[in-house]
């Protein structure tokens, strides 16, 4: 049956979604589901003498594949992601992230008479910060510590303030982004051109959509819910804040990648620096800053533990998720999920556009269910190159909207770490944040589909 594989895949996806909604451990769910699908494919091939290999043994083949996934992921994108995680942990600990946020938000003080206008100005500022501090929960907590009290004092409600803060991570873009790293590896293209030529133009449009919709949505809800009482909250001052010069550290990897990407001709020597190398260079610049500031060699050496702890935290959360999701994705491929989608798209006359829209919407819904844009993209991203080849289009034409939709879906998930953490600090419910985010995020998704597929096809 032509669509049997697609039907079976959808059954597996529904079961996985239900388990994830019940807060089952995502890595285990994805890994086991992937193994089951690979075994099912192997069993069906076993009865086909034209497919099965004489030397193969089904169970061993499946676990050999898992071993290869571990090896390849840790040697490539996994290492990059772990270094990013370690760097983010280190700059957060020394106060560099806080220094960047502190400087970036000074312009808001000029908009005290227009609180909701001031609030939406946080959206593009926060997006710029998210490019440099690519941790949704991390940036969200930083903004809750710095921006949230400012917005409350200006006159917006707690829900309006926290919804704006969560929106700053709605578009996962930039060379330091985990999803960007995965997308560029899948498409086998360079990171910086992907960021500048593909992500940035559409991100600018989507940020404008967010600003406009959040302005009216929050103003309406604040008025209808009678939440406009001004709450005076004073941010707890750090006794020893990082110097303003520390604000350059989170931005440094981006500067290095841009200068040595080949996009700009700045130096006579053609030197290309990858993301991992840029992160390591920036780490040692941060260490030099700390040495100059504190002049304590013992503490300096001890601070390396923060970097390695950050790497370890990313390994046990993100990298293991990538590996599990890769097994899951290959399981879906093996039983005919992508071939079924292609057949449906072709039969309906949609072609590459239809497949692109289906995959974008699917990854958006998956991110809502999983509470993680990373998990959703890692699960479905690897399916795209084969499909794009069959339709004769570039992988990025489908991967780019999926990249953005994955992080947008996270902003509507009551299970997402950033929503849970910010809701706890703000003293509101995560579902109430989802209610505030629903119209702006859906407007952005529709804009994404119309803008991207209208221009690319």
Compact overview of the structure:
The protein has a domain at 78-228 and 239-303. The chain contains 21 helices and no strands. The chain has helices spanning 4-21, 26-46, 58-75, 77-93, 96-104, 115-132, 136-154, 158-167, 178-187, 191-224, 248-259, 275-294, 297-302, 304-334, 337-347, 351-370, 373-380, 384-391, 396-410, 417-426, 430-456.
Keywords:
mainly alpha; 75% helix; 457 residues; globular
What overall geometry do the principal axes of the alpha carbons give? globular
- Low-confidence segments, given as residue ranges, are 46-54, 227-236
Helix content: over 70%
First-last Cα distance: 31 Å
Helix/strand/pairing category: mainly alpha
- What is the gyration radius calculated from CA atoms? 23 Å
Number of strands: 0
Oligomer: single chain
Q: What count of helical segments does DSSP give?
A: 21
Describe the structure.
The protein has 457 residues and is mainly alpha-helical. The protein has a domain at 78-228 and 239-303. It contains 21 helices and no strands. The protein has helices at 4-21, 26-46, 58-75, 77-93, 96-104, 115-132, 136-154, 158-167, 178-187, 191-224, 248-259, 275-294, 297-302, 304-334, 337-347, 351-370, 373-380, 384-391, 396-410, 417-426, 430-456. The longest helix is centred in the middle third of the chain and has 34 residues, at 191-224. It is globular, with a radius of gyration of 23 Å. The protein starts with a helix and ends with a helix. Mean pLDDT is 82; it is low at 46-54 and 227-236.
């Amino acid at each position: 049956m032509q669509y049997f594989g697609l039907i079976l895949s959808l059954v597996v996806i529904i079961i996985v979604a239900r388990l994830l909604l019940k807060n089952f451990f995502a890595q285990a769910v994805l890994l086991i589901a992937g193994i089951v699908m690979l075994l099912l494919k192997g069993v069906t091939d076993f009865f086909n003498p034209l497919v099965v290999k004489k030397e193969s043994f089904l169970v061993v083949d499946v676990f050999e594949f898992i071993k290869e996934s571990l090896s390849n992921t840790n040697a490539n994108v996994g290492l990059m992601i772990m270094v990013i995680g370690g760097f983010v942990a280190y700059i957060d600990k020394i106060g560099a992230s806080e220094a960047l946020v502190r400087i970036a938000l000074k312009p808001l003080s000029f908009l005290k008479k227009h609180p909701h206008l001031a609030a939406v100005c946080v959206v593009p500022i926060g997006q710029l910060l998210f490019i440099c501090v690519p941790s949704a929960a991390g940036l969200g907590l930083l903004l809750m510590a710095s921006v949230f009290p400012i917005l409350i004092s200006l006159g917006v409600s707690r829900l309006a303030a926290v919804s704006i803060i969560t929106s700053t991570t709605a578009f996962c873009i930039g060379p330091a982004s985990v999803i960007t790293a995965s997308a560029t590896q899948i498409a086998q293209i360079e990171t910086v051109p992907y960021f500048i030529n593909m992500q940035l133009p559409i991100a600018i449009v989507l940020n404008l959509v967010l600003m406009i919709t959040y302005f009216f949505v929050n103003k309406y809800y604040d008025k209808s819910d009678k939440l406009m009482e001004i709450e005076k909250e004073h941010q707890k001052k750090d006794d020893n804040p990082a110097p303003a010069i520390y604000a350059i550290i989170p931005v440094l990897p981006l500067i290095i990648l841009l200068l040595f990407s080949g996009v700009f001709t700045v130096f006579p020597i053609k030197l290309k620096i990858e993301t991992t190398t840029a992160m390591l260079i920036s780490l040692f610049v941060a260490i030099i800053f700390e040495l100059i500031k504190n002049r304590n060699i013992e503490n300096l050496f001890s601070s390396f533990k923060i970097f390695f702890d950050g790497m370890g935290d990313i390994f046990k959360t993100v990298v293991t998720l990538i590996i599990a999701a890769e097994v899951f994705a290959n399981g879906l491929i093996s039983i005919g999920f992508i071939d079924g989608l292609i057949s449906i798209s072709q039969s309906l006359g949609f072609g590459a556009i239809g497949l692109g829209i289906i995959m974008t919407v699917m990854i958006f819904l998956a991110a809502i269910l999983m509470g993680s844009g990373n998990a959703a993209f890692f699960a479905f991203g690897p399916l795209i190159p084969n499909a794009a080849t069959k339709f004769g289009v570039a992988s990025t034409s489908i991967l780019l909207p999926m990249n953005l939709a994955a992080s947008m879906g996270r902003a509507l998930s009551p299970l997402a770490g950033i929503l849970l953490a910010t809701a706890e600090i703000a003293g509101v419910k995560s579902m109430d944040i989802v209610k505030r985010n629903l119209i702006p995020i859906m407007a952005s998704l529709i804009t994404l589909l119309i803008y991207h597929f209208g221009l690319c096809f």
